[in-house]
Write a structure and sequence with these properties.
With about 230 residues, the chain is an alpha+beta fold. The protein has helices spanning about 30-35, 40-50, 90-110, 110-115, 140-150, 200-215, 220-230; strands at about 15-20, 55-60, 70, 85.
Length: about 230
């Protein structure tokens, strides 16, 4: 994980992107049977024309996007799917973060270890895709980012937790939906902000906490007593 230079006082002081290095190539096997990403078939076909088997893959992940999506009711019918608009990359900050991640990758390629391995960035050009923009400029990378970026399906905060008087909150600190009796929400939607790590473990914790709240138990009281003795 790394963070972009904190030139703007409103920028948060925590990692903004994650770099995940995979010892697999984006060859035909990977594209057909590897990570299940939401890429159009015609784009996958283009990738296959440039596929090599002696590569490794560095995946760049934006951790704390400032672009905010919406989820709304489509109708009064509860069986109608909701209208979801993620507004991906709408905030320029998110593009800035991803370009910073690309520049960090380029720095890694210039390190002694990567040079010893013969590591280098593989340029892939496709007709009609960002081919009118000068290579390696920020504008070029922004074009590719907007064209090829996919989601890793970790949305949060659509029912974010907060105080009763918090206008942005849907549930209170005990996960109860404000204004509705006997209804709680216990999943990633109650998180107030996107965590830097995977959302799976936090969701398990939220579910366990919800069970304790409903049953009126404190199943971690002994653990809490133990960690209170630690000198942190």
């Amino acid at each position: 994980m790394d963070k972009i230079p904190n030139r703007d006082p409103v920028e948060p002081d925590y990692p903004d992107y994650q770099m995940s290095l995979y010892t697999v190539a984006q060859d035909e096997g990977f594209l057909d049977y590897g990570l299940d990403v939401n890429i159009k078939p015609e784009v996958t076909k283009l990738f296959k024309t440039r596929a090599k088997s002696n590569e490794f893959t560095n995946t760049l992940i934006g951790l704390h996007p400032k672009s905010k999506g919406t989820i709304r009711l489509q109708s009064t019918d509860p069986f109608d799917p909701p209208l979801i608009d993620p507004h991906y990359l709408e905030n320029p900050y998110d593009i800035k973060v991803m370009i910073a991640a690309i520049r960090k990758t380029q720095q890694l390629m210039n390190t002694k270890v990567f040079k010893q391995l013969g590591g280098k960035l593989v340029r892939r050009d496709f007709p009609g895709i960002c081919d009118k923009v000068k290579f390696d400029t920020d504008a070029y990378w922004e074009c590719l980012i907007r064209y090829f970026t996919v989601t890793i399906y970790h949305p949060v905060s659509t029912c974010r937790m907060g105080t009763v008087t918090d206008p942005s909150a849907v549930v209170d600190p005990e996960l109860r939906v404000k204004g509705i009796l006997n209804l709680r929400v216990a999943d990633a939607s109650v998180m107030r902000n996107e965590p830097s790590g995977n959302t799976n473990a936090p969701c398990i914790m939220i579910g366990e906490k919800a069970a304790d709240l409903i049953l009126g138990k404190d199943t971690v009281v002994d653990f809490r007593k133990q960690i209170a003795k630690l000198k942190l």
